[in-house]
Amino acid sequence: MTEILIDGQNLDLDMFIEVVRNNKKIKLSEQSIKNINNSRALVDRYVDEEKVVYGITTGFGKFSDVIISKQDTKKLQKNLIISHSCGVGEHFSEEVVRGIMLLRINALSKGYSGIRLSTVNTLVEMLNKGVHPVIPEQGSLGASGDLAPLAHMVLVMFGEGKAIYEGEELPGKLAMEKAGIKTIDLTSKEGLALINGTQVMTSVGALTIYDALSLSKLADISAALTNEALNGITDAYDEKIHKARNHIGQINTGQNLLDILNDSKMTTRQGEKRVQDAYSLRCTPQVHGASKDCFSYAKEKIELEMNAATDNPLIFTEEEQVISGGNFHGQPMAITFDFLGIGIAELANISERRLERLVNPALSEGLPAFLVKKGGLNSGFMIVQYSAASLVSENKVLAHPASVDSITSSANQEDHVSMGTISARHARDILNNSRKVIAMEMLAACQAIDLRGNAGLGVGSEIAYNIIREEIPTLTEDRIMHEDIEKTERVLKSEKIISKVEEKIGRVL
């Protein structure tokens, strides 16, 4: 298996996923090794000269004016990690932690941080051998970076804290021993170099945008199935309409729907059954398209941040300068993740409205109430819509922007913070809710197609229908719907529907 080369410049979303989800190994490029060694040499010189430089020979935050002696610089760095390990709450998943480690390695490889090569290699070895520090989700202000959660990552590097290794939660020292990795002692600048950055929020956000891009494809497929179940009008998807407005996401969504529905015998043209459909069908390209444009923006910003130097101070070896600044501030990502969460939430919002049209006999164009025979004795999909409504309502709370909030810290030295990690976590939670809603719509659409009578589905929607029906039979009387919803969600997460539909239509959705 070829290793992914880490150079601080070229990490992209697909490479990130290969390492984080598929356990591909990494190694540092020769240029990165050179950059790391050069910046470290300057730090060592400044320590020897006892030059006053923030974070190297001074305290942190409000203590930046406290000078630390040469003899105490090592203790300063260890105390930094121990004191900053204040995370609380549930623990991040192992894939998020792998992303955090990868992104921190990539940032350090740029050579602006002044860390020793041996320390970076320890983190590389932990990632490659699967030692995953236990990192609590809560406790970051998103400036100065993700201090508290990143501190929990570093604890394991010197044998403290806890880690998951081969599926077992162990004391950090034992996990390192079992993996055959030597623990380290931090020296000057290293603790700060390891925790002063935006890698936690960026890891969560990178996984979320990757899954959001897949979800937007599934939303198009689900909308197509609902269109057929309701004998929807395809004229609204005509490319002339969308090119007249000229938003890329809208144009692509209209084309997706036409390709998925190609050859369908269940769709209609305007005037055949009615003149126009409700917004949740007719405006699918406009709504889904807006979310896709949001996702394109978010992906661009996330990939920029993946390759950014985000700690403080930064070391510029050619100029022999150490400059204090604010690249740790998460605001560029906080706003991005708030926007991302809103874009994902809207996919679920319109999906739930289509689901309502399927189950409501006043809106469903002749389908049985709540998509079940012997209604009254059976409730059918009635409470499926309730559950979807609950999730989209929860999403509206989660979509409130965290980036507009700030609470001062460190005795007002750090008087504006981003809350970007909260933004990223909320976007992730919105994604998980939204996938469930789209699973509910797709399941209901398949049921509605069966009840109306499958006269022949489109080339793409037929694939989705058949895959769902391989797992979940038509509902003939009430059963535990939770199980059907979970099975459908697992199918969506597998991306089997996406790959088969794209193969059939001959292009990427």
Please write out the topology.
Layout: E1 4-6, H1 13-20, E2 26-28, H2 30-48, H3 73-84, E3 88-91, H4 94-108, H5 117-129, E4 131-133, E5 136-138, H6 147-157, E6 162-165, E7 168-171, H7 172-179, H8 190-195, H9 199-229, H10 239-245, H11 248-260, H12 279-282, H13 284-306, E8 314-316, E9 321-323, H14 331-359, H15 382-398, H16 420-452, H17 461-471, H18 481-494, H19 496-505
Parallel strand pairs: 1-2
Antiparallel strand pairs: 3-5, 4-6, 6-7, 8-9
CATH superfamily of the largest domain: Fumarase/aspartase (Central domain)
- CATH architecture term of the largest domain: Up-down Bundle
Kindly provide the name of the CATH class of the largest domain. Mainly Alpha
Helix content: 55-70%
The helix tally amounts to: 19
- Quote the beta fraction: 5-15%
Terminus-to-terminus distance = 29 Å
**Which structural class do the helices and strands define?**
mainly alpha
Low-confidence stretches: none
**What shape does the CA trace take?**
elongated
- Sheet of most strands: 3 strands, antiparallel
Based on CA atoms alone, the radius of gyration comes out at: 26 Å
Total number of domains: 2
GO molecular function: histidine ammonia-lyase activity
Catalytic activity: L-histidine = trans-urocanate + NH4(+)
Family: Belongs to the PAL/histidase family.
EC number: 4.3.1.3
